[in-house]
Amino acid sequence: MNLKAILDEALQKSEKVKEEVLKEVLKSKTIKEITANRNFVNAIARIIETKDDVKKVINKQVHNVFSVMDVPSQKDIKKIANKLSNLEDLIDILGSKTVRVSSLKKSKSKKTASSKKKTGKKTPTRRTKKTSAVTKKKATKKKSVKKKSAPKAKKRSVKKKKATRRGR
Questions:
Q1: Which runs of consecutive H residues, i.e. helices, occur in the chain?
Q2: Mean predicted confidence (pLDDT) in 26-32
Q3: Nearest 10 degrees: CA dihedral of 143, 148, 150, 155?
Q4: What distance, in Å, lies between the first and last C-alpha atoms of the chain?
Q5: Are 104 and 111 in contact (CB under 8 A)?
C-alpha cells in the first residue's frame, strides 16, 4: 500500500469514530438537560456571534496593517500571475516568429554567398556595431602610422632646406 491509501483509510476511520462519538454525546442525559435550558442556548449563540464579530475585526485590522506595509493581497497576486502567464504566451508567440525570421536570414545568406561565387562581386556589408568598431580600429592605426611617419617627413624637409641653403 502506498502512503496516500493509508492516509485515506485513516481519514475514513476517523470520520466514523467522530460520528459515533457525536451520537453518544447527543444521546447523553446531561446534554439533553443543557440544551433544554434556554439560558445556556442563548449564551452559546452570543458566544458564536461575538466570535464572528471578533474575527471580522481582526481580519479588517490585519488587512489595514498589510496595506500600510504595502503587502500585496491574494487578488493582487492572482492578477500578477495572470499577467505573467499572458506575457509568457506572448513571448512564446514572438519566439516562434523570430525563429522563422532567423531561418529566412540563413536562407538569404546562403543565396547571397552563392551569388558572390557566381558573379565574383562583393555585396556591400551592413554596418553593425562590430564592423564600425573594426573600422575605427583601422582608422586609429592609420592615424598612428601617419603620426609616426610625419616627423620623418619634417626631418627630410629640414635636411633639404639646409642643403639648399648651403648651395646658395
A1: 3-27, 29-36, 38-68, 74-119, 129-167
A2: 81
A3: 180
A4: 120
A5: no
Secondary structure of 4-51 in the HEC alphabet? Answer: HHHHHHHHHHHHHHHHHHHHHHHHCHHHHHHHHCHHHHHHHHHHHHHH
pLDDT (tens digit per residue) in 52-98 = 999 999 999 998 898 899 888 889 999 999 999 999 999 988 887 76
pLDDT at 124 over 90: no
Q: Which residue has the cell 438537560?
A: 33
Place of cell 493509508: 6
* All three cell numbers of 81: 500571475
Selected residue with higher pLDDT from 137 and 92 = 92
In the structure grid, which three cell numbers stand for residue 92, read together? 512564446
Helix axes 29-36, 38-68, angle to 10 degrees: 80
What is the distance, to the nearest Å, from the Cα of residue 56 to the centroid of all Cα atoms in its chain?
Answer: 36
On whether the CB atoms of residues 125 and 131 are closer than 8 A, the answer is yes
